[in-house]
Amino acid sequence: MKLYVVLIITCFVNGGYKSNFLFELTGKINDCSCDIDVVDEFNNAKIYPRISSLVLKDFFRFYKVNLRRECPFWKDSSHCGIRYCQVESCNEYTEAAQEFDCEETPHQDLGYLNTTISVSSLEDFALWQAYDDAQDLFCRLPDEDGDAQYVDLRLNPERYTGFKGKNAHRIWHVIYKENCFRPENIYEVYIRSSKLTGMCLEKRVFYRVISGLHASINIHLSAKYLLSDKNSNLLSQCGTGLWGPNIEELNRKFAPEFTNGEGPQWIRNLYFLYLLELRALVKASAYLEQEEYYTGNEKEDAETRKAINNFLMIAKEFQFHFNESVMFQETTLDGKSLKEEFRQHFRNISSIMDCVGCDKCFKVALIQLNVTADKPTNIDRALKYVQTAKENSAEIAILPECFNSPYGTKFFPKYAEKIPSGETCRCLSECAKKLSIYIVGGSIPEIESGRLYNTCTVWDPQGKLIAKHRKMHLFDIDIPGKITFKESDALSPGNDITTFETDKCKIGVGICYDVRFPELANIYRKLGCSLIVYPGAFNMTTGPLHWELLFRARACDNQLFVAGVSPARDLTADYHAWGHSIFVNPVAQVEAQAEHEETIIYGIVDLAKIAETRQNIPILKQRRTDVYDISHHHL
Ligand SMILES: NC(=O)CC(=O)C(=O)O
């Protein structure tokens, strides 16, 4: 058993916050025999310093959690909010206290989940798992399932909750309305403290625990608030903005004048929860004193054990513990069923936590550009669209194949540039840096050592060239009476597969005709790509025939996201592009598709969708590699 709950609560209650309130909180803690000041003194002097050092121990620092577990109660549409999961900024309390009137506009850095774990930590986790597996576990632990992963709590401070807009309210509504005991004829979501006394002790306790948890979350969010996101950039790690305490926010959440007088009661409930958890730890001390706190590092494990024992000794010294022995006294059927109801409600609330959207997604912009014969115009227009993409919160902007030159072998020598010294590259680099955005630079004719290539460059938000893909499969086709095209008359093929990393996921790159070759997409999937981008210019013959089919097929085969970005159709040009830029999800559904005119379409890459698809239709695990080798067959 880990001490997370009490750790969290005690950290919230630690001194300091009280002096920031515009109101005083003193006196008795409801349903307990102890004063606020007594708890403060005990906590600040004895508990908080110990917990602050305990949370740095690996055993507590790394927390195993399944971030992908389905919400069992409703389809969680907050799953993939734009940009990061975040807590909405709130203006004022509404009638229903503890509920804010919130704007939907996200604070851009809030909620970014940092899943960075060092290699040595990963090695340690394997040891921990082996150790856990060897134990006799009598119940199914919540973190047992295969999709659970460790997160480093130090890298994911409490400011992150994943709550967003209506979904956050829905979660609290369901918790309070459907999973809290309520006095009869009270229909508001939050029960006024004066009405709580109409319920028996057990039901009051339940309500106070939930309200205390809610208060602790709100205090934490105010304590680590995004004060300014000036220095942050879209794909950089969490924390590049300026974070700190927001006293106004704290007061808006708790001051009596903003909360119909209820805020101070919510804080009292947090104290109540603190006492209840302290008591729970003391009750479990016999067990906790024997726990090994195994992480594989003997020295640290011994230190952790020692620190826990010391902590428990101190906790036992506290004289005003919550007296749970007066609860569930009735041996009647009613008394027993109340206890069972208690258990069920707590279980439900734990499951509801899976409905807290966890953002593992990002927005990509597919820029269907009208390409002209004038190179500077093309570049200029492309960059303007990148700016629009950024303004619409896209984190990656993708340009079409041959975006700086008309598509045709006769044009390639004239428009070709060196990479990265050519003018197009310089502009892309500058733009990526200025806007702090990833740019997948469609493709341009490249010249190197006298050879021409059809090449895609990728730029990171610092303006650095992080990948370069030369079209591997040249577009040489002949459909009599329809279209004849021979890229190999002018171009040489590239010989390298190309991926690049963002801090969200790995991305594979192909160009147009490359999409027809499933092997390439298959390799990208094997390399761990979550998205494959194909700048591409199909035409009026092959476009209607195969464009959508191929993108859906690549997505379907590999259960990942696929984006195809075409130039807009220009009927005055030699080559009539099909357009129809397309964004396909891992279940092979078209999530966005353009017509043939110049436009931007957007797609959301939701990494959880990939995991879900692979779990639901596990083709990647069911491959019969034992029978696919044809070298043994007589053909
Ligand atoms: N233009 C291409 O490279 C490919 C294409 O149009 C097709 O495959 O069809």
TrEMBL record:
Cellular compartments per GO CC: endoplasmic reticulum membrane
Q: Which SUPFAM superfamilies match?
A: Carbon-nitrogen hydrolase, ERO1-like
Please write the reaction equations for the catalytic activity of this protein: 2-oxoglutaramate + H2O = 2-oxoglutarate + NH4(+); 2-oxosuccinamate + H2O = oxaloacetate + NH4(+)
- Membrane-topology annotation of the record: Peripheral membrane protein
Q: Which PROSITE patterns match?
A: CN_HYDROLASE, UPF0012
Compartments, as annotated in UniProt: Endoplasmic reticulum membrane
In the record, biological process GO terms are: protein folding in endoplasmic reticulum
- Chief subcellular site? endoplasmic reticulum
Q: What is its EC number?
A: 3.5.1.3
Cofactor(s) required, per the database record: FAD
Q: Which residues form the CN hydrolase domain?
A: 362-607
Question: InterPro entries of this UniProt entry?
Answer: C-N_Hydrolase, C-N_Hydrolase_sf, Ero1, ERO1-like_sf, Nit1/2_C-N_Hydrolase, UPF0012_CS
Quaternary context: May function both as a monomer and a homodimer.
Family affiliation:
Belongs to the EROs family. Belongs to the carbon-nitrogen hydrolase superfamily. NIT1/NIT2 family.
- Protein name as it appears in the record: omega-amidase
The organism that produces this protein has a lineage beginning with:
Eukaryota, Metazoa, Ecdysozoa, Arthropoda, Hexapoda
